[in-house]
Structures are given as structure tokens and as C-alpha cells.
Amino acid sequence: PLDFANIQGDILEGLPKKYQTFLFFVIADATEFRHRLTDIIPLITTTVQVQADMNAINEHKAKGHTGLLKLVGTNIAFSHSGLSALGIDPTTLGDSLFTNGQLVDASAGAAGLSDPGPIVGSGTDPAWDPDFKKQIDGCILITGESQQTISERLLEIETKLAGTVKTIKELNGNVRPGDQAGHEHFGFQDGLSQPPIIGFRTPNTGEQPTDPGLILLGEKGDAPLSNITRPPWAKDSSFLVFRKLQQFVPEFNKFLAENPIPDKNLPPDQGSTLLGARLVGRWTSGAPIDLDPTVDNPADGKDPNRANDFDYSNDLTAQTKCPFTAHLRKTNPRASIVPGLSVVQDNFRIIRQGIPYGPEVNPDEAESQTTKFDRGLLFVSYQSDIGKGFHFIQRTWSNNPDFPNPGSGYDGIIGQDIFNQRTTTGMDPENVSTSLALPKQAFVIPLGGEYFLSPSISALKTVFAA
Ligand code: N7H
User: Fold this and answer.
1) What pLDDT does 342 receive?
2) 201: number of CA atoms within 13 Å, CB side?
3) What is the mean pLDDT of residues 266-294?
């Protein structure tokens, strides 16, 4: 059985959160940091603790309390340079993307993530926030029901670590207000599809049971691309991919307004709504278009036994229900035919634990159809192999116009290409071969990130701290 007291709480369960702060730091004094880490470890929220917190939240609600229960969560993760600083050789983990760091991957053009920026050779100098081009050794993740609770925990940690680390950057995320809670900034319900890890939770209808080793190092199903034998201490750790992804919401809405799906039976605004749903693969409510191809049925997004009860097997070639290039179908083709892959698609699963950041779109931005404030998604994914998880999905599926078929086009939400005009197909259910040009400036632009390891509690105690 999985040892939930040994697994950091954000990985499988997700830290409960209304607000979240990410603190990116470099280690200034490694010897002293290893000592002080001993005082931080008791503050780390394990999976067992998250489960207790969720029960407390439910009890609080059941007692009729309307206010939020005060709760704080803390996790910690280290980059390759963080491991090196602490005298741990990152190459022993056998993940070259982790060892090289995300900036190398982001700069590598089609051989990597294809992040936009000035062209340099066959790649780019990514248009990232300069702080993410600095060395980042680690990240502390703090969640809470309020920014105040987070600030208190942050102060406690900064006091304990004083003098041993230097802050590079602090980022704050927040769940969106009112009925948009749980929705990302384009307006779509998020967090519905997660792989049900065997031994952690029972699958809902339609979900494919997933070996824990796809997310956790050293567990059943962990099959690193490098074929390395993981060091025993790495068991129950997970690679954390962080990305700051800016979203251009007014521009996204403008694109929908200008390109309604031309169906004679649909008024233009409904044609625009349908285009949004077909770009994503779900309606804003979360209802999957493979189940509800023509009209939204919010009940299907809310019911955990309906939200993932589909696998495109009734729409393998026609795309009348869901385009091949819909974000949902690109990033998890489910039962779709996957040509040229020697391994089944169920090998490429990630757990996503992101949170939106930035203000709501204001009337001026909506009216001018132009972004004036930075907003988007603080993307977090967990996987046991970055090359089979985040990097594979981004590069081999979303960025690849020839997946699943030659000429299918890009994932219109996150697909990137630094050299070619991005187009997509399948948006018009009546004419699925019709090509739709995507704007030169994408709706989602990466502003930075890093690859981290979220170590198990025992690894923190015996390998990282001293
Ligand atoms: Fe995506 N969006 O609003 O369009 N994503 N995503 N994502 N995403 C999903 O089913 C979105 C990003 C995946 O199992 C939903 O939980 C946005 C990256 C995967 O069927 C919505 C951004 C990567 C899934 C969005 C963004 C992925 C998924 C539906 C960036 C990996 C599950 C909610 C700002 C490289 C697929 C849900 C499955 C779902 C959106 C980023 C991957 C609404 C706005 C970078 C695997």
C-alpha cells in the first residue's frame, strides 16, 4: 500500500486552497540550510494531513458554519541546482529534463517546448520574466483560506530559514470569485480530469485506473525513459512542473466572437460559445462535448460519474462530437487511435494542481478587447517522468500539428510553434477539414517556470536535511 504519511499533500490530493503563494528561492548557505530544514519538515503538509483537513472542512460545513475554516498547507520542492547545492547529484534520478532545467527545454524550439521569444538558431530566447532566467534552487508552496493565513506561515518559514536562502520571486494565485470559483480565466471549469491512482482512490465511471508509478517515483508502473534504477531514497517523490502561463482573455473572447461556427441553425453568439467548447473539449460548465456535442448540459460536468464517462470511441474519425485538436483530446486522447506510439496512451498522465492568478477582466479590457493586466494560470503538474508527462503532452501532442493525424493542427489553447503560422481543424462539425487560423499572438504565453522534485518526507529527513 502507498504510505500517505510519506507523500507531500499537493501531489495526489491537492492542498485545499482559496489562495496560494509560491516562493522561489536560492540557497545561500547550504550547510546551515540543511540544519534549518529540520525545523521546516514538521510544517510540511502530508497526504494524511490533507485528508484530515478535508474532513474538517466537511464537518465545519455540516455544522452550518458559513465562514471558511482557517487552514494552511505547506509543501517544498527542489530544482536540479537545489539538489546540487545540497550535495545530491541530480543525474542519479535519471531525468535529463530535470537535470538541464526548464529554461533549456523552453529555449530549444521544436526539440523542446517552443516557448515564444526572439529566434536564436533553431530555438528562442524565451520571452520570460527575467527572474525565471535566474538560478532557482527551490520552491515553497503555501496554501490557505486567506492571504492573511498564508502571510503568517510565510513569515514563520522565512524566520526559520533566515540567512540560509535568498528569495528570487514570490507569486500569488487565487481561486476566482463567486460562481467562477474553480474556473480558469477563459471561464472553463477546471480540475475535472485527474488520473485515479490505484491504491489512492476508486475510479469514477469512465476513469482509467492508473498505476501510482506514473506519478510517484519508485512505485509500481514507474518506468523512466532513461531506464535508470531509481535511488531507493527517491521512492514516493514526484517531479513538479511549474509554469507561469499568461492568458489573454479579452483576445480569446474576441477570437470566439469573430469566428462563430457557421451553423445556419445557430445564432452567432451560440456559434461562438460552441467554438469555445470545441477548442477546449468541455463547455464552460465542465460538461464534456463528447457527451454533449451540441448544447451544454451542466449536470454532466457536476456529476463525477458523468464528467469523465467518455473516451471518444464513438467519434474516432468523424469529429462530430469532439475535434481531434480540442485541448482535452490533444492532452489525453483516451481511447483514440494513437498512430506511431509504441506505448499505450495511458502512460502519459499527469496530476494537475494549478491555480489562477491576476485580477478579473475589467470593463475597460472587455470593451477594448485588449489585455491590460497580467492574469493567467500558475500551472503545476506532477509526474514521475517529465519526458512522459508535461513535456511529452506539450511537445508531442499539443505543439504537433500532425498529431493525431497529418494536418490535424495545433491545440488552440496551448499549442506553440515559433516558426510556423498555427492553424487548426475540426472546429466546424459540418466541415471538419476546414482550417482555422489561430492568432499570431497565442491566447496562452509562458512567462517562466522550472522543473522541481517534490521529495518524500523520509527523503527530506534523511537526504535533504541534516
Ligand atoms: Fe489544460 N483551459 O481552460 O482551456 N485544461 N489548460 N493543460 N489540461 C483542461 O478536464 C487550460 C495546460 C491538460 O484528462 C481543462 O480537468 C488552460 C498545460 C490535461 O481529459 C481546461 C491552460 C497542459 C487535461 C483546461 C492549460 C495541460 C487538461 C478541462 C493554460 C500540459 C485533462 C478541465 C493557461 C502540458 C485532459 C478538466 C483529460 C484539462 C484549460 C494548460 C494539460 C478547461 C487555460 C500546459 C492533461
Assistant:
1) 46
2) 13
3) 96
What phi and psi values does residue 276 have, to the nearest 5 degrees? -60, -45
- Say whether pLDDT at 267 is over 70: yes
Whether the ipTM is more than 0.95: the answer is yes
pLDDT (tens digit, 9 = 90+) per residue, 144-164? 999 999 999 999 999 999 999
Average pLDDT over residues 74-96: 98
From 285, 289, 327, mutation site for ligand 1 pocket: most ligand atoms within 8 A of C-beta: 327
Q: What is the pLDDT of residues 86-117, one digit of tens each?
A: 999 999 999 999 999 999 999 999 999 999 99
Res. 336 pLDDT band, cuts 50 70 90:
confident
Question: Which is the closest atom of ligand 1 to the Cα of 187?
Answer: 3
**Per annotation, catalytic residue among 53, 190, 236, 315:** 190
Is residue 271 in a domain? Answer: no
Q: How many domains does the chain have?
A: 1
CA–CA gap between residue 234 and residue 226 (Å, rounded) = 15
The whole-angstrom separation of Cα 75 and Cα 45 is 6
Confidence check: pLDDT of 5 > 60: yes
Q: Is 190 contained in some domain? A: yes
Active site residue 296: no
Residue 308 is assigned to a structural domain of this protein: no
End-to-end, the C-alpha distance of the chain in Å comes to 28
Q: Which atom of ligand 1 is nearest to the CA of 391?
A: 35
E strand or H helix at 119, and its extent? strand 119-120
Which segments of 259-360 does DSSP mark as H helices, in order? 268-280, 298-302, 327-331
Is 193 a pocket residue for ligand 1 (Cβ < 6 Å)? yes
**Whole domain around residue 27: which residue ranges?**
9-245+449-464
Measure the CA–CA gap between 61 and 57, rounded to whole angstroms: 6
Q: Rg for the chain (alpha carbons), in Å?
A: 22
25, 136 contact by CB (below 8 A): yes
At residue 343, does pLDDT exceed 60? Answer: no
Say yes or no to pLDDT of 340 above 60.
no
Which atom of ligand 1 approaches the CA of 243 most closely?
Answer: 45
Residue nearest to atom 46 of ligand 1 (CA): 331
227's enclosing H/E stretch is none
Is residue 72 a part of any domain in this protein? yes
C-alpha cell belonging to residue 405: 493525424
36: which residues sit within 8 A by CB, 6+ positions away? 160, 161, 164
Closest by alpha carbon to 375, among 286, 252, 465?
252
pLDDT number for residue 441: 95
d(CA 272, CA 179): 21
